[in-house]
Structure formats: structure tokens, C-alpha cells
């Protein structure tokens, strides 16, 4: 199948400010065998109205609205249930897509379960911040699950996945990033790859749930050690989730790593140390 159907799963929530700009880049894709599945998470602004206007103009554009707010991950999970394509791309409400994004990724995916790409950061005025995602993250290609036990380099907006990945990955585990989970499942079931081009202009702003630069600033905060207990616990929960995955390539390794990490966390964050750190 040389031109498979690609489903673009777009989730919105109170995103009227940048939404039309994004939608213009979606309908301008050079790859034409697409469907756009837009699910609005019960917005209180005009997001749903904007989506409906585009749906009235483009027959491949479908719009749904949740009766209650499902949250970021839950909304994407629902959007996937409407996707009919053999390939699925994930879309945030405030970015700008290169017109060749889908075409390039379809050509590049080959026998990989996931193909992702680099992205350029922009501000609220669409101006470049002169920084790329690859400046912050080491991109990975291959099939080794160990690469995703502590870090994730695959952003949802950059992913094109094969639909065959979903039965093993869904439902998405609660409390974790869906893109990280999809990447982990993919390298256990097959392999992933990336293309070096920046195919999305990735907007950073105060209202964004995916402001990567802000998160990086927080990581470099000299006072961040006071939050390390919470960070270690989140990593521990992630390792436990990975260890529970039934199709692990090396379940013994993951379980052993989880056990050792559990012991480290419990020994390091003792009550006495907690009292000491509060005084710092």
C-alpha cells in the first residue's frame, strides 16, 4: 500500500488563540490521503466552533466534543478510537506543521513502528527561538527498551505510528505521558527511527501543557534538590509501569532495575534526611 490512510489525531481544549493557524497547516499537507480527527475536550471558548467551520469545508475533517473534560491524555485516547488509518499522527492545538510533514514521515517509516522528527521552538508571535528539540534531547533510533527507562526523546507532536502498536499500548496508563509510553511499547515490539528535519514549529507559551523550555529551566534550578523526593518517586512509578508491561524484551532486567531503584529511593529519602533537606 503506497499511500496508506493517515489519521491525524488532534485534541483541543480552550485553544482558540492559535487553532486556526494550526488548522491551515493541516489542510495544506502535500500528502492527501488523510483524515483529521479533532476531539474537543469540552472547551469553554470558541475552539469547537472553529473546528466545526473547518469540518464544513473539508470532507475528511471530523469533529467530536466530549461531554466532560477527559484531560490531555484521556482526550488523545478517545481520539484514537475514531482513527481509521493504518498510520496515525498526533497533533497539538498550537503548533505549525510543515506542509510536507506527513509525506516525509510516510516515506521514512518503513518497517519501524514509530517515526519521529526534530522540531523548532517558536514563541507566541511565530518567531523562532533559535533552538531545536535536538539541542535539548539525544534522539534515539533502534529497538532497545533500556533507552526509555529513564528518559524520553519522542514528543507526541512529532510521532507517526503504525496502528498495530495500539493494542499493546492502550489503554494508556494513568499518570504518565502517552508519547513516552508509546515509545517504550514500540521498542519492545519492534523498532523506532527519526528524521532530522524540523517538521513542526513547536510553540512555547505560558498556557501550553507542553512547554519544554520551561521544564528545562526548572531542571536547571539550583534549588530543585528540594523536589528530588517527588522526582524519584515519579521515576519509580514509571519503572514499575515498565516492569508490568507483559511484552518486555528483558523483563528480568527491568524488574531488577525497579527493585534496586526502589531500595535506593527508600534508603536515600529517610525521615531523618527529609528533615535535614527541609532546613536547606
From TrEMBL:
Q: Which UniProt keywords apply?
A: Glycosyltransferase, Transferase
Q: Where is the Glycosyltransferase 2-like domain?
A: 7-161
What Enzyme Commission number(s) does the record list for this chain?
Answer: 2.4.-.-
Determine the domain of life of the protein's source: Bacteria
Gene Ontology molecular function:
hexosyltransferase activity
Q: What class of enzyme is it?
A: transferase
Protein name according to UniProt? Putative glycosyltransferase EpsH
